[in-house]
Structure formats: C-alpha cells, structure tokens
Amino acid sequence: MQSSPNMLTKACILITLVFESKSSRAKGIAFHPKRPWILVSLHSSTIQLWDYRMGTLIDRFEEHDGPVRGINFHSTQPLFVSGGDDYKIKVWSYQTRRCLFTLNGHLDYVRTVFFHHELPWILSSSDDQTIRIWNWQNRSLICTMTGHNHYVMCAQFHPKEDLIVSASLDQSVRVWDISGLRKKHSAPTSFTFEDQMTRANPSQADMFGNTDAVVKFVLEGHDRGVNWVSFHPTLPLIVSAGDDRLVKLWRMSDTKAWEVDTCRGHFQNASACLFHPHQDLILSVGEDKTIRVWDLNKRTSVQSFKRDQDRFWVIAAHPEINLFAAGHDSGVMVFKLERERPASAIYQNQLFYITKEKHVKSYDFTKDSESPPILSLRKLGAAWVPPRTLSYNPAERAILVTSPTDSGIYELINLPRDATGAVEPTNMKRGQGTSAIFVARNRFAVFNQSSETVEIKDLSNSTTKTLKPPTGTTDIYFGGTGCLLFITPTSVVLFDIQVKKQLKELSVNGVKYVVWSNDGHYAALLSKHNVTIVTKSLEQVSTLHETIRIKSATWDDAGVLLYSTLNHVKYSLLNGDNGIVRTLDQTVYLVRVKGRNVYCLDRSAKPKVLEIDPTEYRFKLALVKRNYDEMLQIIKNSSLVGQSIIAYLQKKGYSEIALQFVQDPQTRFELAIECGNLDVATDMAKELDRPKLWSRLGVEALAHGNHQTVEMTYQKQRLFDKLSFLYLSTGDQEKLSRMAKIAEHRGDFTSRFQNAIYRGDVEDRIQMFKEVDLYPLAYLTAKTNGLAEEAEAILKTCGLTEDQLKLPQVGETLQTPRPIVPTFKSNWPVKAAGHSSFEKALMGEVSIGDEAAGENGYDHEGDETGTAARESLEDEEEGAAGWDMGDEINVEDDNGFVTVDSAEAGAASSEADLWARNSPLAADHVAAGSFDSAMQLLNRQVGAVNFSPLKERFLDIYKASKTYLPATSGLPPLVNYVRRTTEETDSRKLLPIIPRDLETLVSVDLQEGYAAMRSNKLEDGVKIFKRILHTLLVNTVSSEAEVEQAKKIIATAREYILAMSIELHRRSLPTDNPESLKRSLELSAYFTIPKLEVAHRQLALMAAMKYSFANKNFSSALSFANRMLANGGSPKLLDQASYNLSLLSAKKTKVQCERSPQDKIDTEFDLFAEFEICAASLTPIYGGSPSVSDPYTGAKYHEEYKGSVCRISDITEIGAPASGLRLFVSSVN
Amino acid sequence: MDPFSTEGELVNIHSAFHQGQYQDVIDFDASAFSPENQLPARVLQLRSKIVLGQPEEVLAEIEGEDTPDLVAVKTLAQHAAGDTASALHVAQELAEKYSENATVQVLCGTVLHAEGQSEEALALLMKHQGNLEALALIVQIHLQQNRTDLATKEVTAAKRWAQDSLLVNLAESWVGMRIGGEKYQSAFYVYEELASNPATSSPVTMAGQAVAELHLGRLPEAEAALSAALQKYPDNAELIANTIVLNVLTAKDTTELTSHLQKNHPSHLLLTDLEEKSAFFDTIAAKYAPKVS
C-alpha cells in the first residue's frame, strides 16, 4: 500500500495513525468526549492538551511536582483531573486554564484518577494501597477503600452500575460494590435508622458489616502484579493486564466472578488493556513495545503493532468514535483501528452502502428513505474487517464488494429483487484482488497488487482480458466508458481497455479516490491534501490544496465539486475557485448533493442529510458562466453580501457587479472608478467630498471624455487654469469669459492674461498690461493687433513718441483656435457599454433597444462630422444586435412548438457524405461509398492502378459502415452509420468504422501468414500476405506509432511474398536440364535473402543447404550451414526439438562440406555481393545498378518493369509518382 | 378517448404491432373490442398480414370494401404485392379526399414515401391530429432524408404530449441512433428493455438492440444478441443484414449469410445497394490501368 508509516499493517485490521506527538514518557491519556482533544500526562510533570485533528499543542499545565500518572476529562463539565507522584489530585478547568483545587489525602503516588460518569465523584488509586472516592463539588474525601496489600495500580468505575474494579501489585483484581455509598449520597428523603447509623460512622463498617464500599469479588489468577483493569462497556466482563505478561479476561455474574481465558503474547510486562467500545476486541499494550489486538471471543491475537524504541505504558479509547491513543516512552500515538469510510456506490437516485453490521442497504434520495437490509455480507472477509469498496451495476443489479482480508478479495453478488432483510447472498462469485470495479454493463476489472495485473472479467467471473498496469499501481478506478484509471503513488494513468493502450498520464501525487461528475465529463482526484479536477480525457482543469485532510467529494448537478475535509464541507468550481460551505462537527463522507441538501454517510455508515446554503457557489458559478439572470435571482432572493464576495468579484474583474453589493461610499467609489461608472463615482464623491477623490474622478472623467464631470471636479478643486483650458478646448466661450471675470475678481493677472489669450481678447490684454504697468507690452500688443489708436494712447500715457522706440519685428495677430464642434454642449459620446446586461437586468431595464444613444448630443444636433455619423451608426448596430437576440429566442420557441413548414424540409446529405468530407483517407471515402474519390486518393498516394483485387475490401468496408434498423412496417429499414468512435457526435469529426484494424491484422492475419510459412503452404501464404497488403492499403490507424507499425507490416508482407514467390517458382522448375538446375539452385539461394523472421529464414537456409548439398554444391551448402549456425538465436517459432534437429543437421552438413568446399555447378549467387531481388524476374539487382521500386510495397524491380503492375501488391504501378500512403490524420477537422 | 392510449382497449394490439409481434396481432380476438374499435383493430391485423407477406390474402379479404381505411389498406397491400403503380395512384387519390383520416394518413403516407413521393407524404402526414403513428412516420421520413434536426424537433414536440408512448420512445431511439454518442446508450436501453422481456421481444426489437450494441462498439454483445435472435427468427431480413455487417466488422465470413439473404429477401437494401456499388466500382476501376500491362 502506501510507503508512509501511517498504514501500519498489511492485512486484516488496519491500524491507521491519526496523530503522533513527541515528548517525554507519557503515563496517562484522556480523550475529550466531544472535541478532538487529548490530554497527555507526562513523566516530566507536565500535562499537555493536544488537538489531534490539527496536530497542535493547545495548552500545557505544569503544577504537579514529579510524574503525572492519572488523567481524565469530565464528560460534560469543562474540567479534568490529574493525579501525580506528589500524592496530589488536582482538578483543573481547561477554560480558565487553571488548577481549581487540589485534593490531598493519599500518602503515596497517585496512579489513576477517573471521574464518575454522572455523580460528582473522582476515583483514585494509589501506591498507599488505598482506593479513594472524592466529591469534587464539596472537595471532600467520601470513601477510602482498603483491602489491597500492595500498590493499587488502577481503579475504574463501572460505566453503568455501582461497581469499581481495581488492580494491584498484590496480584489480585478486586471488584467493589459501591451501591451503599451511592445510597448514602443520593439526597435521602427520610432518614432511616440505618442511614443515620452510616452517617454517623463514615467510611467504617457498621455493626452488621456493611460499609459504603464492599469487596464483591477478588479475582486471583495473575502470577505477578496487575497493572491495569477495565470493565466491558456493556457485558459483565473484565480485562486485566499484569507483569506476568498476560492479559486476562474475567466474567462475573451477580454472585461470582471467574477467569475466562488468557491472552498470551506480550513478552514483557503488559501495562494496560481495554475493551474495544463497539467491537469484540481487546486491546493491550506492554513494555515489549507492542500494541496488541485480540479477538474477544476466541482470545487469539488478531494484530500487533510494534514500535522500535518505545515501551508502551497506557492505552485509552475514545468513548464514541473509533479512536485509540497509546502512550509510550517518547510521546503519544492516536490511531484508528479500522477503516471508517463506509463502502458505498451511487446509481441515479439510489445510494448503496454497507453498514457496520456488514449489511447492504440502499437509500433513496428522492424519498429520503432508507431500505431495510438487502443483503448480509457477514461472511465476507474477516469478522472485524469492513468491506473496502462497493461497485454497483444497474443493468444486472449486481454489486462488487472488496475486502482487504487476505491481501484483498472481491465478491460479485446479485442483489435480490426486493429487500427482504439481511439474507445471506446466494450464487456469488469471488476471487483475489485488491480492487474490483465494474467497467461496463457486463464486465468488471480486478486489480491484483501482488501480481501487478488487471484482469477484465465477465459476469461469470472468467477472465476475458489481462492488462498490465504501470508498475507501482496501487489502485484502479473507473475511467469513463471503456477506460480505467490506474493510480500510482505519483501519477494517474488513463487506460483504454479495448485497445490496451495508455491514453494519458497525469502526474499527481498520492491520489486516493476518484469521484466522477454526474455527467461523466469531469473527475476529481482526491489525495490527502489536494483535489485535482480533470476532464474525462485526463486533462488537468484545476487543482487546489487543503491543509486539513480531505475526506470525500461529490459533484453538484451543475458541475460544482463539493468536498469534505475533517471539519468542513467546501466547494470548488471547475476553475479552482473554492470556499467553505459549512462546518462539520464530525467527519462525514459525502455522496450526493441535491439542492440545499448534502447527503452523506457518517462514520457509523448511517445516511445523513446536511443542509447547506449553496448560494455562494451558485453565484460564483453563474458569474463564471455569465448567467446574469441567475445571478440576479440570487441577489434578489438571498442576502449575499460580505467582503469576501466583493473581493472575489473585484479580483475576477467584475467590479461592476461588485458595485451592486457595496454600501460603503469609499468602496463604492473605488469600484465605480474601476469599472468606469462615473455617475456612481460622482455621487459617491459628492457624498465624501474629498479633494483626492475629486482629482481621481477628474482624471477618470477626462479619460472618458466626460468633460461635464471634469468641469465639476475642477470647480470643486478650484483649478481655474485647468478649467479655462477645458473651456477653451471644448469651445465654451461663454464660460471662458466668465473665467476671465473671475480672474479679474481674484486679481490674478496671470490667469487673466491666460484667459484673454484663450479668448483672443486683445483689449482685455492691453487693459491688463496697463493695470500692471507693463506699458511696453501693452503698446506692443496694441501695435501688433493693429490698434493704432490704443497704441498712441499708451505712448501718450508714457510720454514717449514712436521714434523713441525700437520695436522688434512684429508678428501677425494671434488667432485663437475656434472649435468647430460645440463640444461643450454635451459629453463626448461613449458607447453604451457601461451598462452590462447584468446591471440592466438589475435595474429592470428589460428592453434593450431603449437606450439608443438619445443623450449623446450629436444625434439631435444633426451634426455631420464623421465621428458623429460613425458613432450613431454603431449605436444603431448596437440596438439592432440587441433586438436580434430577442428575435432569436422567439424563433427557437416557434420551432419547438410548431411543426416545421415544408419550405425547410427536403433531403440533406447523409452522414456517409460527411465522412468523405471529414477525412483525407481513402478508407473513409470507401466507407462513404465514394469509390471514385477513394481510388483517386489511392492512385495519387501509392500509384494504385489495378483496383480489381481491392474490390472485396472496398465492398467489405462499405458494407460494414451501415446498419439496418427496422422502423415503420412496410418501409425499408432506417440506415444508420457505424462510427469509429462511439462518443463522437460532432458532425465535423464523424468518421466511419473500418473493419479489420491493425490489431486484427497483427493478431490474426499476420499469424496466419506465419503459420502458412511454417507449414509450407506457400500458395496460401502468398494469398494471405497479399490480403494483408490489400487490407492495409485501404485502412486507418489511430496514431503515428501505428503508422510506423503498419509500415513494418507492409515491409514484412513484401518480404514474405517475395520469398514465397521465389520458392514457388523454384518448385515449378524442371530439374532435368542443367540450365534449369542452375536456375533452381540460384532461386533456392535467393530464397534465403528476404528478411524473414529468424526462424523462417532458418527454414529457407535449411532448404537451400539441403538442396545445394544434394546437388553437390558443397561450398554453397557450407555457407548456408554457417549462416544457419550463426543465426542460432532463439527458437521462437519452431518447437525446441525440431529446431535443435535442424541446427544439428547444419552442423553435420558443415563438417561434411568442409572436407571439399567446392561447388559442382556454378551459380550466379554471390554470397558476398550486396543485392536485392527483382520481384518480377526474381533475379538479383546488384548495388549500383538501376532499379525502380513500387510506391506502395517498396519492392524493387529491374528498370524494364517500370509502369507495370507490382507483382507483390497486384495493385500499384511500379515506379509511379506517389505521395505516400496515408492511414492517419493527426487531428481531423 | 384515444383508443390507443394506455387506458384504451386497443393499446395491447397497437403495441404488439409496433413491437413487430405481427402474428400476435393477427391472433388477437378482434370481436372482443367495442364496435368503434373494430375497424382500427382490423386494420392493424390486415397490416400485420401484409408485413408477414400475405398481401394477396388481404386483397382478397377486403375486395369490394370502400371504407377509406380499408381502401388505404388495399393500397398498401397492392404496393406490397408489387402493383406499385396503381397503389401510388390510389394513394394519391385517397390522400386528396380523406386527408383527415388517420389510417389514410399513415398508410398512404407509407406508400407515397416508398414510391419516392416523400414531400407529398410529409404534406399528408403533417395534417395529423395527435396521431403518433403518423408522427413516427414523419420522423422516419426525416431521418431517411438525413434531416436529423427536423426529426429531433418532431420527437421533442411529441414528447410533450405523449411522453411514455412506445412509439415516441421508438422514434426517439431512431433519432438517437443517428445522433449517436450518449444517445446510443439510451436507444440501447429502450430496445434492450423491449427485447429482453419475452412479452415484447420480437425480431424488430432484437434487431434494434443488436444494432445499438453494434453502434456502441460492443461487438461481442451485438454478436450474442444477433445470434440469439437469428436462432429464433432465422429468416428475418434485418437480422441477417445486420449480422452480415457485424461479421464483416469482426472479420468473419459472410458468404453463407449473403446467399441466405439473397434467397429470402433479394430486394433488401443491403443487396441492392451493394450491387449498385459493385457495378460502380467496376466502372471506376476500369478508368485506371497500368502503363505497361
């Protein structure tokens, strides 16, 4: 399984580590009954409070002096008690984190302390040989029990009755009756004499021998001191552990108690022991560093776990959930004893699950009802090992259950038709396997980790296929139709069962569970701390990390993943956005989400319904899908506010939507600026009225061309210069002169001058210059602008004449630019995109056409500038587009209701026609019936000219592409087109099925060919190999790798056909004349040239050798023999015996030939020359001599054969120009 | 009340007819029906006989009858008997005169479509008022014209008012088999349900199941289904034809089955189509020749 140490054992019961602390020796442990807390008292005097779920130390309590041995939580109050070697018993409050008080009285080490489950009592045991009961409410000692004559190591209350059990180093276990004590302290209504007597003599035997606590039984059986003792929670049983290394089981009745049995196994002192709260198991720990689990009924060891270094001192059980803690020399370990995750499977509205009693039950989501038990799996696996997984097959109403017992077994069981109670299954099939899941209606896959195989089995449990998963595979899951997912520690592999091929591998660490979405398009891969969402083709969509352990997940119908961690239900959208849906107070396993209900199984395998508020994730989903209507709905109907959603919207770039949620003006302003909503921004700025905001608004408004807002912001900020310039640029003369007046009022001459320039107001300028005594400038200005009189007047004022002045070159009158468009009248038109459809919906603007740019000034002014025209044009388009949308909806509705008028009718092209369109491969054209284009393709690709041998293949493909579905009687059947990929429905990607794929060719045809070769049926062989060539010529493959494979097969077929033709030709030759004998010998030599499988080459060599030898061509025979021996190799295709025999005869021949290595008949066969064989003439083509080859098979020919039909393929023209055969298109469009 | 609806007394005979259990239809005791249902029942029985290849008997039986329903049956019988010209003629006449009659719509629609007058057939069928048979026929015609889109619309519309009807389910499966993908599986479920129940099993449903399996790429299952069906109905044309297709796909010999089909159903689509393609092949292949022969 996993390499991590948290799976401590292999088989049977799993001890799963939950938490481990490091500290000094732990002597006492106590679980909090509700919270995930554990108290650990240490030998070092410290008491630690841990959160074992989060793995954090919450608190430390250090008031004891010396080791603290006893520790216990109160079951309801925020209290705990401790007892130590300082003789003290301390009661603490974990809320105030203080010791409330100390109970003094013991005269030696306090060993254990326990609260009573209902009375305000504390029970303590001590080395002073006493057991004492204290009332923690009035902080007094109420009873002292004496009797043990050595240290009392442990004393515990009975969980229900008025009994105490104690263990002592005096080798005895004692059971005490404390009903008297209870009677005395349970507020008597009237005082009897007896009562008064007992009251008067506390903790002493009265005159009749009655005391508050009397020894009921003394259990003797341990040979050494007894360290621990506990009651069974429900049965009258006691278990004790002692220094005699034994764990003893005792039974008691009302009148007596006796030893039942002994569990032997610890090889050092047994320190502590207890009963499993729910199961028939005993747990014990000892100084031999082991935790041992025993079967209560058989008293046999079930399991043991050993630590390397640390002796165990104490063990405690959680009162409710399946958790245990053991204290040892260097800390505490908290562990689970069995798998809590109930095995379950969902089909439509039914959940099938296995209860703790190992009953199969179903739960109906629609009716919210639980079925009675359907089946009992009591006999599956070991008694205390719950089944691990459940897989359900709706077609057969069968289940597959796996159990980790005996390193994994599975059972296939048919569910009874109706649930009649927990019946034992009949007619079940079983086998070995780590995991077993249904992969199809009548197939299931069984994974065997030890043998690293996956077997595909049918419902009769016989294997139909064996797959080899990647090494290190730990588990398998359903991988979508026809596929499996292999889980390895570092990756997940998608595997196609049909073609036995790995489709995709995704590296994800430590995946433990795979949860498919309801539509099967997505899967969530859960590992301990990560969720990875993938598509059905194993493309990663998103991944997220959780610091807390992830327990389970399920998909909402809308494609939202809900997952549970130890303490939360969370959601994740496909894009990885996630958040908390609700908190959990106990771990649950989610199985289904429906509306506001989350269905889950709790740790005790009971179905539970949790209510959730799906608003947040639905909203986010709607946002992602841009489903504004739904968003609107959500906003209207629920109180979806809060910083998180605003931050989320803002982060995702939906400021305009976030705006709808915000009240705070500052935030609103920010958002409004962000999304360019100036109106809102202006409102907010007015509300806040801060210069900084105005300035930002101004900048933003300027960018929008919204000069009215800009004007306002400038006014607010008193930016007169900017205002003036704004008026200038917008052509607002009136306001500009007002600005001049303002400047005059303010006495700001620079500003006045500026305004005067902007306005082209020369008089004002001159006036101003005069006012500031800049007469030269005033004069110059007057002069320049041709105001001679004014100039004169200025001269006069200054008392100067013209000739006294030296004027610079005077320029032309400054012409201020005049705006053509009265821009100031309205804002720069902005495309009305500011309102998202969402906002519109929100504001109730249902009709989209309304907002044709009425307000943008240009339209009603009839201005003819190009911009305006263009703008309004765009607006029109906008409006039109808006209407179009509306229209479309109507059209669709119409079509839905009204039968279509015949104008739309008429035949269309069939799917077969699409095939030819979708594919450039000849085979697909053939399937489409488009033989002409197919032949054209083949002619171009491989120079095919003689098609008649292909006729059968063509018709076969054509035949196989269509099925006949009987429909209305009296009419021909409906023709349907068989597709290559059954999932494909995109008409542009549809392709036909092509019979006899590469796999069949390799596994059937090629083998037949080899068989023909082996059995010397060469005529058949030639036919078979030619058929292979013909089949491959018109075919398709599914990957580049297969293209390569196909090429290899073509080459193989070519070589075999050539070889067989040579041999057949040789056999047809007469051998009576020397000419043909020579030829015959040559041919037999050529027979050895083609590249056959080694074993077949040996056959050829053997034949050639024998033939040469018989004709006394010893030299040739010798060379053949040598080649045979050199080939040696592995006898793959021949059986060992005959193979050895042939090698033997080769050796013999060799020896004989070596005596006289000469050829009697000279042949043209040159052993050492490089040559190929012409497939037509069957003569050699030596290297360098001219040759032509066949474009399809690649067979070589002498040049004179160019243009004739290839002898190998019978179809293609030798030496024809060709582009090469295409069998595969990487991505078909 | 619609006599074919789930409560109507004709529902069983009607279902049997459309599940392809023609002999069962003929064996129905028609006299048990109420008078107004006598005629539709008789029409169904006559149609069953025609399907089972006894058009001559039917013709003899309704000689001289002039109820439009029976005349419509007559055209169908004539058509089945090979007298296509007069069948077409009468059908056209009927279609004009009694276009409101449900039987006329369906039977004449069938004849018209079979004779290539698909548009006329559609025009006639479109006049139906909640006649599921007509609807199924419309769907089939659309499909044969490769107008899956229109067929889908018809079915979706029909599902609004006849959700659970067998015919709508079947029609939906026909469309599903064209659309493919997940629809194959739902079509398969429809046929499987019918075929696996002995009460509704027939060559039609079994062929449907097998074809769906085949399209789903589950060849071993398809093979099992077909061989089981062929054992029961060795002469059924569709079963043979689909087995031929399957055998080609699984690379098995088909000669025997082909000759079997040739013998029993010489005019089956598979054979005629293949013949045509074979000739086509020869014509095209003749255009190519090696430069040197």
From TrEMBL, chain A:
Record's keyword annotation contains Glycoprotein: no
WD repeats: 61-102, 103-144, 145-186, 219-260, 263-304
Gene Ontology CC terms, in alphabetical order: COPI vesicle coat; Golgi membrane
InterPro entries: Beta-prop_COPA/B_2nd, Coatomer_alpha_WD-assoc_reg, Coatomer_asu, Coatomer_asu_C, Coatomer_complex_subunit, Quino_amine_DH_bsu, TPR_COPA_B, WD40/YVTN_repeat-like_dom_sf
Superkingdom classification of source: Eukaryota
Name by which UniProt lists this protein: Coatomer subunit alpha
Job of this protein: The coatomer is a cytosolic protein complex that binds to dilysine motifs and reversibly associates with Golgi non-clathrin-coated vesicles, which further mediate biosynthetic protein transport from the ER, via the Golgi up to the trans Golgi network.
Domain COPA/B second beta-propeller, first and last residues per copy: 357-602
Gene source species: Elaphomyces granulatus
Subunit relationships: Oligomeric complex that consists of at least the alpha, beta, beta', gamma, delta, epsilon and zeta subunits.
Topology within the bilayer: Peripheral membrane protein
Any coiled-coil regions, as ranges: none
GO molecular function: structural molecule activity; ubiquitin binding
TrEMBL record, chain B:
Keyword vocabulary terms for this entry: Cytoplasm, Cytoplasmic vesicle, ER-Golgi transport, Golgi apparatus, Membrane, Protein transport, Transport
Places the protein is found: Cytoplasmic vesicle, COPI-coated vesicle membrane; Golgi apparatus membrane
One Pfam entry name: Coatomer_E
Bilayer-spanning residue ranges: none
GO molecular function: structural molecule activity
Membrane-topology annotation of the record: Peripheral membrane protein
GO cellular component terms given for this protein: COPI vesicle coat; Golgi membrane
A single GO BP: endoplasmic reticulum to Golgi vesicle-mediated transport
Domain of life where this protein originates: Eukaryota
Entry function: The coatomer is a cytosolic protein complex that binds to dilysine motifs and reversibly associates with Golgi non-clathrin-coated vesicles, which further mediate biosynthetic protein transport from the ER, via the Golgi up to the trans Golgi network. The coatomer complex is required for budding from Golgi membranes, and is essential for the retrograde Golgi-to-ER transport of dilysine-tagged proteins.
Family: Belongs to the COPE family.
Listed name of the protein: Coatomer subunit epsilon
Organism, as annotated: Elaphomyces granulatus
